[in-house]
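Hi there,

I know you've been waiting on this one. I reran it after we fixed the sequence typo, so this is the corrected version. Both the input and the resulting structure follow.
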Amino acid sequence: MTAPPATGPAGPVAESPGPAGLPGGGAALRWGGLVAVTAVLLAAWQVFPSDVQGDGSSVPKLDAVLKALGPSGEWGTYLTALRTTLGEAFFGLLIGFVAGVVLGVLLGESRILRQGFYPYAVALQALPPIALAPIFVIWFGLGMESKIGLVGAATLFPILVSTMAGVAETDRGRIEMATAFGASKGQIRRRIVFPGLVVPVFAGLEIAVVLSFLAAIAGELISANAGVGVILQVYQRDFRLAEEFAVLLILVVVGLALALLVRLARRFVLERMPDE
């Protein structure tokens, strides 16, 4: 039996919450810490390059990078290159996602195939895209096809491994019960297996989204006519480091936006799934 709350002349006495216990206190602390750390990093970026490098040629100061991102920046070049890289990343990710889910379900349903193929899938997942880029250039040429193929290969394995793990963790008792009641294999997949794959597949997709960008740029650095990797090489060759850092900041923002989009999509799907 719980003790009654303490009372005073004006009624119950509320407990004193700490700073994190205030309404929105936890969020305020998190955002406050993020803002403080960001401000310190930006201030250090503005102050230290000239002190460390002398003329600031190796690390451009913050104001130079912001100028490259301003109205006078080469936004036409930035956006054209980004559009090319995003296209390669999107179509490659689409191929890797579909192939990873389909193969993951098929391999995950067979214990022998899953145990035999899983170690190789994990090992191949560790291969860096930059090491595979020359092979895909030889196979598919210098155009977008080689970058799309490289992205597809790089994003296949995170999706494949997470899907196989999700299938393996499916409740076998529910499958046996559904089979006993005459459910077909397709019905078991739709009603039992697929709903349980939402969380692991989206976990693999979060990794794959980042890899899609890295793989596309890695392919462009090896051989390409357009894309973010191409303009990064041009800026590096011409020692235009302010523009190079500006492109890197744009990539950071785009990467964060894509990660947020995946999380929103996962929340959207989970909220609309029927209760068991």
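Quick highlight: The chain has eleven helices and two strands.

Best,
R. S.
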